[in-house]
Amino acid sequence: MNPTLLIPLSAIAYLLLSLLRRRKSLRFIQGPPVSSWLLGHEYELANQSEVGDLEFKWFRDYGTVFRSAGCCGEDILMVSDAEALHHILNTGGYRYPKTRDAVRFIKQISGRGLTWAQGAVHQRHKKALSPAFSESQLRMLLPLFQMYSDKLALRWRERFADSQIIDISHWLPKVTLDVLGESSFDFQFGSLDDKSSDLRVALQTMFASSQRPSKFTLFLRAWKRALPDSVVEYFEGIYVTEEDIRFKAYVDAAKGAARELLEENSSNLVANGEKIAQESHDYLKGAEGKKDMLNMLLRSKAAEDPKKRLDDDEVLSQVSTMIFAGFEITACTLTWIIYELSRKIEDQQKLRAEIDAVRVKRGEDAVLTSNDYDTMHFLNACIKEGLRLHPGVQFTTREADLDDIVPLAQPVISTSGEVLKKIPVMKGQRVHIAIAAYNRSSSVWGPDADQWNPSRYLDPSSESKKQQSMIGVFGNVMSFGSGVRACIGWRFAVIEMQAILVCLLTQFEFELPPGGLDIQTVPLRSMNAPMLRGKLDQGLQMPLVVKRRVRADV
Prior knowledge:
Number of helices: 23
Largest sheet: 4 strands, mixed
Structural class: alpha+beta
Strand order of the largest sheet: 1-2-7-4
């Protein structure tokens, strides 16, 4: 079929959609003026020079809830209000599912894994994978985290002088990828040994042209949002973009690697990914005590209870999902934390003193435990503050599956001047969960919400402590999400960051290079990535002066 037929089909789809949207109008809520009915604010938001420039200003201007415009006159509810977020994500449970276009996009970039699943299917996936992320299981993995942290430090000592500028954003993804591979799938990526793979190449190039989407790309995404999945899938088969090709390349590479991993660990898993043969139950029985990701997937694949079983594609998709979501965002968060500690040397010194004190107390040759890390209060405050100020993901999107009333912690003023303490929403309403804006909300974190201040977590009398509500899973921040769809691997990420930061700060000191850094926060591969202003074409960068510590044996 001729792709030009998309034009009349688009017109018809949007005519119908516009009629439906009149029922879901949020015109009683204030919002920024719109210069384009066709694109709304979507093009402006996707192409702002710095992540959050527009949203942060709009939330300051209109309050913790406002109305933004989507393509073709759609009203979108923008939310950073603590009580509203708690209602939508925690109280609401699965009543605010991911939007159809978001689900479709996730399936396209990582398959039918945990982040794709909805409702009962999500519960089934989460139940199958949760044992791999239990606190007891992760404590068993700590020596592995420490081993790879030490390996990173060794590589730096081998390759760099006692004081040298190192792009830490190049190295931290190497260690987090190696940790993820061996701890979750018993697979050695060899990234710290400079081994290459088709999977890494596909992952690094999949968002090559998605950083600044064109007007046509945004309109195409909105067009897909308006149509049933079956229609979209039909047209995707005849109208394939370069972005579609790159996404498919990653998913194919990830599932191929997943298939090899599973075959390597179970001789009864046939090459084409068919069901595990009955004999493999002997293997599973022998591995019953093992609760790493690989064994959980094998066990779920062989489960007799359909409520606990994952099909072949779901199993393979879990691997592609965890690889996509499980190493780069953690590495990016670590990059931001070390950057902030390089800007605030006094905080770096305070943290290093805390680490040294614990090491002295435990003995120079003692291996630190999870309990040791948990007693390092300033370490954990720095991790929380890094997650708060620099969340890996800026926002997520939900859709009301029923008419609802959303309560507000901070009332807003309507277009008629009325004080609104609740927002009525209708079934089908798209809701923009503003993670980064909530994390910087002065109503939650106080007047210094835009500033790095890890001590806010240590002072019980601080303004942020008074205003905090029960949201999120760690430190009241939204960076890991909240409620039934909160990130399943948040404990994994926290313990990994603890191990890496303690190792690096024990052996090295970090400073800004002469002349400082002009860092710009740019959306890259679904992350809020640091880049050098004026050098965005060079990709993610964080060049810092790294010095070996004189007392590295403390």
